[in-house]
Amino acid sequence: MDGYVQYSPAERVVDATIHAVAIAAALVGFVALAWQMPWPPEGRIVAALAVYAVGLLAMLVSSAAYNAVRGGPAKAVLRRVDHAAIFVMIAGTYTPMMVLGLGGGMGFGMLGAVWAGALGGAVLTVALGPRFERFAIAAYLALGWCGFLLIGRLWDVLTTAAFALLLSGGVLYSVGVVAHTAHRMRFHNALWHAMVMAGAACHFVVVLLLVRAARG
Q1: Scanning 71, 121, 194, 198, which has its CA 20 to 30 A from the CA of 165?
Q2: Verdict on whether the full-model pTM lies above 0.90
Q3: Rounded-to-integer distance, Cα 212 and Cα 93, Å
């Protein structure tokens, strides 16, 4: 159908369930983050968490919509939106980590570079569509891991648990790419999305720990 991989009813149900659980968990998680914020709330924390929430929800909702549609012009449009939203999610996740974690010239410099790369990638994804997809996967990985250029500083400012979760999230995202490309394997799409959600969960806990630390 229109050149898209067609999944069995069981695969579609599992994938839809993963998305529904992830969206519900994200909404609950955002309430938890708001509850953990210092009072009165600081503008930088509110802004960083708002950007993070928008980025993560954009990725989850666009992915759910794209994978729910089986074909036709709408799926072609949603495919571009879905893949562009991944760039926004990556930069959105960096935002609280750099603002609340690293800060200073180093943190904001890295954040600016990541957002520049993410916005550029999102624009190219929307403009070029499937022609950019192979490059997009490489760009996702490059943007996701470039923060570890500051690994020494990250080790200094994060707790051991937060650092381990940050690394684990990156590994889950990266290994998930293998499942994403294994088109002959049953449930590969659901597995890919499950690993993305697990990686996002790891990074959510890192953000939560940073918010708690900001309370003093």
Answers
A1: 121
A2: yes
A3: 17
Q: Tokens for 34, please give them.
A: 């708001």
How distant, in Å, are the alpha carbons of 47, 59, 83, 189 from that of 63?
24, 6, 8, 11
Which class does domain 9-214 fall in?
mainly alpha
Residue among 34, 36, 35, 30 at smallest CA distance from 213: 36
* Nearest alpha-carbon partner for 55 in 26, 35, 33, 98: 26
pLDDT confidence band for 1 (50 / 70 / 90): very low
Task: Please check the confidence at residue 3 and state whether its pLDDT lies above 70.
Answer: no
**For residues 147 and 94, is the Cβ–Cβ distance under 8 A?**
yes
Query: Could you give the CA distance from residue 21 to residue 75 in angstroms, rounded to a whole number?
Result: 22
Instruction: Give the list of residues 6+ apart from residue 162 with CB closer than 8 angstroms, or none.
Output: 205, 206, 209, 210
Question: CA 210 to CA 96: how far, in whole Å?
Answer: 8
- Yes or no: say if 91 and 113 are a contact pair by the CB < 8 Å rule: no
* Among 172, 114, 102, residue whose Cα is nearest residue 143: 114
Domain map of the chain by residue range?
Answer: 9-214
* Three-state DSSP state, 32: helix
Backbone angles phi, psi at 9, to 5 degrees: -55, -40
Residue 193 in marked binding region: yes
Taking residue 125's Cβ as centre, other Cβ atoms within 10 Å add up to 25
- Taken as a whole, the chain contains a residue count of 216
